[in-house]
Amino acid sequence: MSKQFKGAIGYPAMIVAIAALGVVGSAHEGRSAQAMLATAEQAAQVVTIRNVTVKDGQVSGELVNGSSRTLRDVQVLIRYSWHWTNEFRPPRDDMGEAVYHTVAGEIAPRGGKSFSYRPAPPLRSGTDGRYETTVSIAGYTEIIPQKR
User: Do 8 and 96 meet the contact criterion of CB atoms below 8 Å apart?
Assistant: First the structure.
């Protein structure tokens, strides 16, 4: 599941601020979930991304659960920033895109899970610049067992 935002790269500071927050939820079999916000530092201790590769817009990597709890439905923010060759006089067409991609399923404590994302439709091509692709954690659900 992915949400795509075309042309949203015009406000990178806002996107970075949003990406710096991980949303943490807790749930237990049929009980209500409670959402909490975590700082970027706290989220980085819980889930990290490694071995990221990008080829023709397709992004692959591995999510690593650094916590002692199961994680579920990790969201990654994939940013395709377009850099014009002539940044002083770029055309009006912004070719940058941002996508929130949910990696469905669970990641066991201290475990990992591979992910892959291919933009559909494919990224627009241009001859007067290049894409810079960055991937960061946007959110996740942490399963917190109920104490009895």
Answer: yes
Q: How far are the Cα atoms of 3, 7, 57, 94, 123 from residue 40, in angstroms, in the given order?
A: 21, 24, 26, 28, 29
The total of structural domains in the chain comes to 1
The pLDDT value recorded for residue 42 is 77
Question: At 21, is the secondary structure helix, strand, or coil?
Answer: coil
Q: Is residue 111 part of a domain?
A: yes
Q: What is the pLDDT of residues 71-110, one digit of tens each?
A: 999 999 999 998 888 877 777 777 889 999 999 999 999 9
Residue 60 or residue 40, greater confidence = 60
CA distances from 10 to 23, 56, 94 (A): 24, 22, 8
CB atoms near residue 9 (< 10 Å)? 18
